[in-house]
Amino acid sequence: MPSVLWTPAPAAFQSSNLARFCLTNGFDPRDYETLHRWSVSDPGAFWRAVWDFGGVIGDPGAIALLRDDQAPMTQSRFFPDASLNLAENLLRGDDGQIAVIEADEGGHFRTLTLGELRRLVASTAQGLRAAGVVRGDSVGGILPNRVEGLVALLAALSIGAIWSSCSPDFGAAAIVDRLGQIGVKVLFAAPCYRYAGKEHDIADRLAEIVAAMPTVTTLVLTGDDKPAMPAAVAFEDFGADAPLAFERMPFDHPAYVLYTSGTTGAPKAIVHRTGGVLLQHLKEHLLHGDVRPGDVMSWYTNTAWMMYHWLLSGLACGAAVVLYDGAPILKTADGLDPSPLWKMAQRARVTHFGTSPKYLATLAAEGYAPGRLHDLSSLRSLLSAGAPVSPSQFDWVYEHVKPEMIFASISGGTEIIGCFLLGSPIHAVRRGELTVKGLGLAVAVMDERNAPVIGRQGDLVCTEPFPSMPLTFCGKDGDARYHATYFAARREIWTHGDVAEMTAHGSGIIHGRSDTTLKPGGVRIGTAEIYAACESFAEIEDCLVFGAPVEGDEEIVLCVKLNDGFELTPEFAAQIRRAIREGASPRHVPHRIHLVQAIPYTLNGKRVEGAARTTLEGKPVKNIASLANPACLEEYRALDRSKAA
């Protein structure tokens, strides 16, 4: 297979946003390495250049970086004298331009102009003021991905409040574990939502949640059917006519609180800075994504995932954002229907389409070819996050979606509300690789000596400060817990928790999470190669791999969920092992393969290898409320080595 699947046109080195940024700051667009070295060696100058290039509304102040030489990562401060408002930057532009496209699984489709969105935000902001919300207060949401959620978020930010949201399909305990940490004053919630063709009534759950969060003084209900609830008001009646106004905040003022998956304890409540969010997202959208005014961005996400907040920042680039509510694939009497997102993309003329490897794998298994079935002439970039993309999926994308576009596998995290490795409009797309290190991020892969390595696996780290590092964790000992999570392994070096590899081309490969790394025979290997091999089998619907302790060592356990009509025969198990041996190495070959009925996932849609291992060992999973399908763990408790394939 050729390693290079796409190359930029010569014009990209003059016309792309990244090329223009290079030229504006005195760099050759064909010399990204020098640009990147400048961005991390003089971060103050680089991030001030991003501020200027992105046309940030606000006052940057005289100092771009106040560096602490004793603790450069944890104590340095960006733009210490700046003042700005995130919502003001998201809501800039002409009143008549399309800002939002709202779509759902049932075919609903409507557009809102920036002027219409501003009026809704102004009204809701006035409602928040009347409810007693002031700067620094927390406003929460339990909402589907619709206009009301965006309006509530922007209204909260506009007055200096802090926004945090959960998806309405989260259980009561999971929501209280999250929003209960931050003292929510006003809560926006949908008492019912629709998913996969079914209506879900969560009014009783909302009552339970509000009862468990005594700080909530006002409950604002969205949707058509609103039950009578104490202290509740309809979204339509909550606001009041008022001019749109923005309170300028310091750069480090909290904007969002996001949460870790929470499978090893209570979810960590990560506080993100106003200025850090804006600058990181402007850099990623404008420079790495080449987002332009008039573009249309979509990402399949719920309102809890960081990609929701990441998507919304496209507004600051003059792009319209798609809010899609519901299932991406529908079950019908004739089988699965993968068309909803692609019908939306065609109708909305999406230019940047965001998805996940699991979704792409399902499309491939169904034989669904979006490029053949839909008009994707507007599509310039397909992006994927949430898990490593296998090399074969790169091939599938260019064959079945569109050959002339950028495919960007991106990787970062909730912790930085952005990406360490991502795409570029002026770099080749290489099979199975993440294209470049993000500008302004001193990304490296370090071995056990804390030496940077290329061509070998190690820990993904960042060695210089950047603006979207968390401000802190909410709650008791928040600073100490934050430092222990990311800086305990290496003093003043961010250790992200990914096993990765940098290539000679400057691209990267993610092999999996450090906490799920397999160590058979004491040799550390990642899980991504095993998942990639399994994804090549049409028989396998989903799978999970983890290490199980055995006689002072560890053996690799692979659990597979098969599509209807297939069996885990000894012959098929041998095929799986052969594919893993040939695609990865003999060390990756599983010792045991089990047939299971379901794969455990977090509420954020990530596989939970650790919970399966813990269950197999007969130990309790610490925070079962963070799992989307906790009941499925029972079958892992009973996995019998003697019955494995």
Report what the structure shows.
The chain is built from 21 helices and 36 strands. About 30% of the residues lie in helices and about 25% in strands. The protein is an alpha/beta fold and about 650 residues long. The two termini are about 30 Å apart. GO terms for molecular function: acetoacetate-CoA ligase activity.
Percentage of residues in strands = 15-25%
Shape estimate: globular
- Characterize the largest beta sheet: strand count, sense, and whether it forms a barrel: 7 strands, mixed
Count of extended strands? 36
| Amino- and carboxy-terminal Cα gap | 32 Å
Strand order of the largest sheet: 7-6-19-18-22-23-24
Determine Rg (CA atoms, Å).
Answer: 24 Å
- Summarize the amount of helix as a percent range: 25-40%
Protein name: Acetoacetyl-coenzyme A synthetase
Family: Belongs to the ATP-dependent AMP-binding enzyme family.
Enzyme class: ligase
InterPro entries: Acac_CoA_synth (IPR005914), ACAS_N (IPR032387), AMP-bd_C (IPR025110), AMP-bd_C_sf (IPR045851), AMP-binding_CS (IPR020845), AMP-dep_synth/lig_dom (IPR000873), ANL_N_sf (IPR042099)
Descriptors:
AMP-binding_CS, 36 strands, acetoacetate-CoA ligase activity, 645 residues, seven-stranded mixed sheet, five-stranded parallel sheet, 29% helix, globular
